[in-house]
């Protein structure tokens, strides 16, 4: 299993980060709902994102991080919110799919 995750991280190098849209030089695995707050290890709760976004988000939930970005006027808030919006229910999903 560890080799599969490593292969996915290696394959993501140069791909756009789902949180900021910038090419990823050092992809990392982010728990969308942090394990510290009860998040699971399953694939629906993880996303491969760039290291700066993962570090900035820290142990916050995606929704909490988006709120902080929006309040600070960070353009990533708008980018991530568009990716995370469910067009049917117009609500933020718990994961980036």
Beta percentage is 5-15%
**Which strand order do you get reading across the main beta sheet?**
1-2
Helix content: 25-40%
Helix vs. strand class:
alpha+beta
Mean pLDDT: 79
Poorly predicted sequence stretches spanning 5 or more consecutive residues: 86-97
CA radius of gyration is 13 Å
Number of helices: 4
Briefly characterize the structure.
With 97 residues, the protein is of the alpha+beta class. Helices cover 39% and strands 14% of the residues.
Q: How would you describe this structure in keywords?
A:
97 residues; alpha+beta; two-stranded antiparallel sheet; 4 strands; 14% strand; disordered C terminus
Question: What can you see in these coordinates?
Answer:
This protein has 97 residues and is an alpha+beta fold. It contains 4 helices and 4 strands; from the N terminus they run αββαααββ. Strands 1-2 form a two-stranded antiparallel sheet. Strands 3-4 form a two-stranded antiparallel ribbon. Helix 3 packs antiparallel against helix 4 (75-84).
List the helices and strands and how they pair.
Elements: H1 2-11, E1 27-31, E2 46-50, H2 51-57, H3 62-72, H4 75-84, E3 85-86, E4 91-92
Antiparallel strand pairs: 1-2, 3-4
Helix pairs in contact: 3-4
